[in-house]
Design a protein that fits this description.
This protein has 312 residues and is an alpha+beta fold. It folds into 2 domains: 2-86, Ubiquitin-like (UB roll), CATH 3.10.20; 89-299, no CATH class. It has 9 helices and 6 strands. The strands form 2 sheets. The chain has a 4-stranded mixed β-sheet, with helices on one face. Strands 5-6 form a two-stranded antiparallel ribbon. The longest helix has 29 residues, at 268-296. The N and C termini lie far apart (50 Å). The mean pLDDT is 92. Residues 25-70 form the TECR-like N-terminal domain. GO terms for molecular function: very-long-chain enoyl-CoA reductase activity. Its main location: endoplasmic reticulum.
Length: 312
């Protein structure tokens, strides 16, 4: 057993005013075990809310790292700092909240046009296709969140849920739905009559590409799930369909899906969401690509790009 001093990295929260404290813990324990010990002394300071770091270093310590490895020969009498990350919410809950927005907003606008446009809308085949695409996409995302995804991080700051949800509720929800289901794209509208937007061959061709993208995206998520045993944070190099070319084929395939909606409608909001979503996913992909290369080094395939084959 060793005694470790836990001090506050900033002003301690009201429920942990007694910091600093000394914690007695076994040398084979992990940082996660240490967080649990802190939570026992301050019940409201639950482990997910804590960020532990070596004094003078802001880098967060990994929950799975052994205390003896982190502190080395400075173990006895060592001091770690804890920072309050604020109220937390599980990633699974965040995803469910994000994706449910479009599942509510699109039907409200599609089925009740009188409320939004002050007129009836005879839906065109284009509008029916887009409504099906959006509904099936976000229903798939909800089911994946419940039954497929395994998260490496359990929680995130509660306030972030509002920022994250805005992307889906406003851009792919309210903005996209309001334009696409409007009289502008109704069955007898000039934007539809005599154009590719009412040609069944074009619509089903778009549907085929969209279905390919969605199924491929699901396949990618299943591959990632199978790399991580339940209840663990194990990471491994992914291989197989899509991964032979890029680190994040799930983002690549999702981009294809939204490109279909953008091309088949040629609507301003569809273009806007496609650009914003692609830029955001590219940023995530580049970060994950760098982390893969850093973690696995020479084991990681050198020819892979982050998100777009041979390009990025």
């Amino acid at each position: 057993m060793v005694s470790i001093t836990i001090s506050s990295a900033a002003k301690p929260p009201s429920f942990a005013k007694n910091l600093p404290i000394s914690v007695e813990i076994d040398t084979d324990s992990t940082i996660g075990d240490l967080k649990q010990e802190i939570a026992r002394k301050f019940p409201k300071f639950y482990a997910e809310r804590q960020k532990l770091s070596v004094k003078g270093d802001r880098k967060a310590l990994d929950d799975e790292a052994k205390i003896s490895t982190v502190l080395g020969d400075k173990l006895e009498g060592a001091e770690l700092q804890v920072k309050d990350l604020g109220p937390q919410i599980s990633w699974r809950t965040v995803f469910l909240i994000e994706y449910v927005g479009p599942l509510i907003i699109h039907p409200l606008i599609y089925y009740f046009p009188n409320i939004w446009y002050r007129t009836n809308v005879e839906h065109s085949e284009l509008q029916k296709f887009v409504f099906a695409f959006v509904t099936l996409h976000f229903l798939k995302r909800e089911l994946e969140t419940l039954f497929v995804h395994r998260f490496s991080h359990g929680t995130m700051p509660f306030l972030n849920v509002f920022k994250n949800s805005a992307h889906y509720h406003i851009l792919s929800g309210l903005f996209l739905a309001y334009e696409i289901y409007s009289p502008k794209f109704a069955a007898k509208a000039p934007a539809i009559v005599g154009t590719y937007r009412e040609d069944p061959n074009w619509l089903w061709a778009f549907a085929g590409v969209w279905a390919f993208a969605e199924v491929s995206n699901l396949h990618t998520h299943l591959t990632l799930r199978n790399l991580r045993p339940a209840g663990s944070r194990k990471r491994a190099v992914p291989y197989g369909y899509g991964f032979n070319l890029v680190s994040c084929p799930n983002y690549f395939f999702e981009t294809i899906g939204w490109a279909v909606v953008s091309a088949m409608t040629n609507g301003y909001t569809a273009h806007l969401f496609f650009v914003v979503a692609t830029l955001q996913m590219a940023a995530w992909a580049l970060k994950k690509h760098r982390n893969y290369k850093k973690e696995f080094g020479k084991e990681y395939p050198r020819g892979r790009r982050a998100m777009f084959p041979f390009i990025l």
